Amino acid sequence: MKLCEQLGEKPDPAKMPLEPSDFPEEVQVAFFMFSLLPDHWEGMSGTYMGKYWDGIDYFFKLYEVEHQRQVLYFMKIYEREIVSYRAEKAEQKRKADERKAKSGGKNYTHNVNG
Prior knowledge:
The chain is mainly alpha-helical. The protein is built from four helices and two strands. The radius of gyration is 22 Å and the shape is flat.
């Protein structure tokens, strides 16, 4: 919103990113619970594998989550999206590194006046 003000534009709600408060309560709880779980990375490749789910019962009990089945469902959807996004970004980086290696690494340009 402040960016729009700086640019002298009227804010367009259709282009604005969603805030956590825009979602139903169960989804907000899912975001929160998801953030509590530790990340799982594959050791050799550094690939993001999702979350370690071992402690989910503990957190559900600790925070007295009422609709556990729904919250877990939204958490798994969110995890799938994040894993997919990170895999896509890693693939893009791999391809960029591959192209860079094929082109001989660094590109040098010389300023020659003739």
